[in-house]
Amino acid sequence: MAATTNTPSRAVERIKDEAAFTAGLRNRHLQGNIWKYFFQAAIVIGIIALLTLMFNVVNRIVGLVAVREIVDPATLADGRDLATLSAEELARIYSDYRLSGANTDGGRVFLRDNVIGRDTFQANPQAPMSQLLPNANLPPEVGALTFSELQPADTQVVLAAAAGQATLLDAVITEIVGREVLEAWTFTESTFNRAAIEERLASNEDWADARLEWRSWLNPQFLTTRMTTIAADSGVRAALLGSLVTIALTVLIAFPLGVGTAIYLEEYSTGNSWFENFIETNIRNLAGVPSIIYGLLGLAIFVRALESITQGRTIISAALTMALLILPVIIINAQEALRAVPPSIREASFGLGATRWQTVWNQVLPAAMPGILTGTILGMSRAIGETAPLIIVGAATFIATDPGLTSRFTVLPIQIYTWTKDPRQGFSEIAAATIVLLLIVLLLFNATAIILRQRFRRKLSG
Amino acid sequence: MATNGANAIELKNVKVFYSDKLAVDNVSIPILKNKITAFIGPSGCGKSTVLRSINRMNDLIPGARVEGEINYHGKNLYAPNVDPVEVRRRIGMVFQKPNPFPKSIYDNVAYGPRLLGVTDKRTLDEIVERSIKGSFLWDEVKTDLKKSGLALSGGQQQRLCIARTIAIEPDVILMDEPCSALDPIATQAIEELMKELVKSYTIVIVTHNMQQAQRVSDFTAFYSIRKAEESGGVERRWGVLGEYAPTDQLFSNPKSEETERYIRGEFG
After folding, report:
1. What is the ipTM of this complex?
2. Phi-psi bin for B46: left (phi > 0), alpha (psi -120 to 50), beta?
3. pTM of the predicted protein model
């Protein structure tokens, strides 16, 4: 009995001990501060890492280049500026060049692949020109010829009529003039070490006809031109279009499927049966499966088994594979969003005699929409940067034509991967430019999503 | 008051189970037409459970089950061919916490009619105006029907919820502690509104506040708790109907000692 009355009183004394409290308080604050500094340091390290990465990439997209023109453009048209030439003149220059030397097709390959389009041509190789190029204003005698009947002179006429001055000028500059980038320097090198660069240029005898110029690798032309084998002339048009079309298709497939699944699991299923638990567990596990596995799945199912529908290694196959990849992300986020809708809203709706579907459609979905969109954006951001599954599904690394739904395709990350591997001058620069482009596209997607989300939120809070 | 004395709803031996555990045992009471019936009793006595089984809101809780009969116009609401959606359209509900939709005041009130397929703007306008006037809210919001329902004060929100309920012209309005989240002035406004509404509707109200039951209700059902020791020392509790009588009689001259002790505030 004595012990039990004694012990609490000592405990109470300890609690009331002012000196111990003061000492302890200092200690407690110190502990808290140490953690706070640790958290701040984590943020600072993260930001430094990110800035270093960004600097490293951006540093490469603007800088000095040493360029040399393989053929002096002045010699091609008696000293006239190429840009002022007509389509007929350019077609003649191009065709003549293509008849000399190793290439003796007279521009037929260019006509077939870049003007008619390979797919259009292969669909109907025996058709006359007027049918293959219905929009071109061809003279009737040339228009009646099939592709195999074209003589060099006819090819010139067709090119001049169908390709347009800009396309021909581009072809002449890239294929005949052929500006060659001898070396490229980063922005910091170009700015702070210009003397060394100039000295290097002067000391190298092979580079006597080269000149230095500033170049931004990420320029409008880079976005709109097709791929070539020369870095400085190459563009990402095919990859950019490929990425946009793939992502659009992916979201079109994955959004309704994912949100539908989430609505079923959250609003309709009772969550009690083993089957529903099994599905839920599996969705969570699928979110963590390495993307390359999805690539193998896509190859087996969409490219091989469903070839009759997807036409093999096409954007459709890629989008279906990507949709599978981001489905779990969309489902899980949509489920969280639906779960976060207060039950009182559902009760109010049911209490007014709404059916389950009316409740879901009119109340639950709008309230969950901001969260669902966030999840979709997360999925999209993942899909746009994915490379591995697309390599397996069969993205091509060199595509000169714009992608169609059932044509071979490439996307931005694949292009970055291919160009980064290329040891020739200029390719690491266009890879850097493509990385920045990819980041910009990603940023635009995210910005759109944030705006959409804010609009939904504002609508909800009135 | 021609229908005075007629039953709007009749509960017969109603038992409610949650996952096979008895929650409320054997409740049999009438709900009189155009009268306010109050359910009172200590926490956990099942008064809200009974209320929610009247418009089949309990169906939404997985594992909930009702035995016995709840007759409405001579038809058991739990008969197999009864659609709960229709039940809730006839027997509306106002909840404990005001729960307006995150939409405009207009859309909140127009929601019920729209569910029923009303799309004509003129008709909707008329319904909205009449319903908001009917819940004594019109003068406060008439200039700003586009404002979000969530921007109103708690008492206004609850009156908006009542407007929303009467917009679909139900027969019966169930109110589950409608004033428990409100201050005394807002509570008084709702009580006055109830006295007005009962002229056209039948009202059942669950309340923790005995003075409120005394002030507004015509009939009162007192629920109490029964306990039993199960094997292993686990205590099982369920609610039963303690007493049902006209309110004056129940408060002035309670039949059972338990009712009297509850009314005196000896337990709660």
Report:
1. 0.91
2. left
3. 0.77
